[in-house]
Amino acid sequence: MLFKNKASCLLPLCALLLCAVSGAAQTYPTRPIRMVVPQSAGGSTDLVARPLAQRVGDALKVPVVVDNRPGAGSTIGTDLAAKALPDGHTVLAVAASFTMSPSLYRRLPFDPVNDFAAISLLSSLPNILVVHPVQPVKSMKELVAFAKANPGKLNYSSSGVATGTHMSMELLKHLTGISLVHVPYKGGAPSVTALLSNEVQLCFATMSTALPHVKSNRLRALAVSSARRAQAAPDTPTIAESGVPGYDYASWIGLLAPAKTPEAIIKRWHTEAARVMQSAEMKTLLANEGSEPVGNTPREFAAIIKTEVERWRKVAQAAGIKAE
What we know:
Blueprint: H1 2-27, E1 33-37, H2 44-60, E2 64-68, H3 75-82, E3 90-95, H4 101-104, E4 116-131, H5 140-149, E5 155-158, H6 164-176, E6 181-184, H7 188-196, E7 202-206, H8 207-215, E8 220-224, E9 250-258, H9 263-277, H10 280-287, E10 292-293, H11 298-319
Parallel strand pairs: 1-2, 1-3, 5-6, 5-7
Antiparallel strand pairs: 3-9, 4-7, 4-8, 4-9, 4-10
């Protein structure tokens, strides 16, 4: 009887909360909006989040304040956003590692699929697979053949354990069955420097880091990681079209809100974010980094999150990868 009485008291409270949130959607926004970025200021996520926040804030006529909350592999800031009131006054800018976290950490304080409402995939940044010019491989097919004939003899660098450049190579290993030795470095620049000095034989790198060395013939580009060719390197084939069907990886930046944020607010944010990402200013900014605007629908972005969470779970399990 006591349980029933408590439950009957809670029902009106829940109804009041839902009414309050629903009513807020009609007068939204009523105060400054916080855009949580769970990485440090100046990083790739921050690069997109800050101009987006300013331009959306101008459209909504309230400040959109970027709140950098780095730490614990981005889980601190992400958890903060997950537990915020779902009234549209907190949004979250995340990187592709968001979908890798469930596979890398034993316990997460949030569920990437159920604790957030997708708004839009903002931008996509494919990696490029490069080798040192002394290596006897000039195509993706030649690399796979050489690696299979010489298992464990090729070393690849990455920007660190469980980072995108590490996981994208593990995905390649998973799909082709080749054996490569991982040599992690502390960042993308040291990873490429190791390749330039032939300390390692290959690596995935961002376009902005690798392409200058490709153009000067200090590195050889084999393929790009995305499903379609990259605008920054249109003559470089994709890994999928080079004989590894199904391969598709791109680092990305996306926008989320806490779960149960009213649909009207999600739609408003999607409309404004898509508009900003397709502006000439943002296209130029992204192109300088080798990135491309996306601005897809909330439903499409939600489907990507769900698919990637499952994909990285399989890759991490097969490779025995855990975050350090």
